[in-house]
User: Fold Lipoprotein-releasing system ATP-binding protein from Limimaricola soesokkakensis.
Amino acid sequence: EPILKLSGLTKTYNKGKPSEVQVLRGADLEIRPGEVVALVAPSGAGKSTLLHIAGLLDTPDAGHVAIGGQEMAKLSDRRRTQVRRADVGFIYQFHHLLPEFSALENITLPQLAAGTPRREAETRARELLEQVGVGPRADHRPAALSGGEQQRVAFCRALANAPRLLLADEPTGNLDPDTSDRVFDALMALVRGTGLSALIATHNLELAARMDRVVRMDHGVVA
Ligand code: ADP
Ligand code: ADP
Assistant:
């Protein structure tokens, strides 16, 4: 059974206006457990839209999203929010860390919100930070970290509650090429270490080639 199944997704922005743009035109995609898939397409092709719909951050005009074999449209809003928080980790191009909290706290907070005891949450946060090489910087706020370190912390936060599915939107897209390569290595090590399933949007073909499968978006469908 696929961990993520998208079927017949359509999405149009600004319907009926001169600025109308049909971004998805029946997009289908399946991700099997443990599979790491690259989503490759030029800017503006609809990668963010597809990821947001898959991550339950946006809704399609038509089509279906199933996570772990469960059809999301059939769930209550409350249950869907639970699935989004517990089963899906999301990484953006920019870290979106909370500026007033340390790296450690940024990874601890989502665990506390999920009901994990503080001691356990902090231990897990430290382990994750060690794995991505930011252990010694755990008590720094995001502003005191480099761009690469900030993004590594964001990876840890996305994995804090041990999701089943990771969705990443150009996760190293705002870093210079050298940093991007190293930070991407850290992400792949984290993902492979947990056997997590992932859909990672990138327009870097070298990074894409290191994943299990590459899918392309073209004219609103996944080729
Ligand atoms: P990508 O991630 O591949 O760059 P996006 O999904 O961000 O693509 O955007 C696809 C197209 O939809 C672009 O033309 C973008 O400007 C447009 N778009 C995205 N989000 C919105 C929105 N909320 N309202 C209107 N247009 C949008
Ligand atoms: P990305 O680099 O992830 O593709 P974008 O800059 O395209 O990011 O989009 C950032 C956010 O703005 C997304 O949530 C997207 O849905 C929204 N967005 C993108 N294009 C438009 C648009 N033309 N009008 C309104 N919102 C948009």
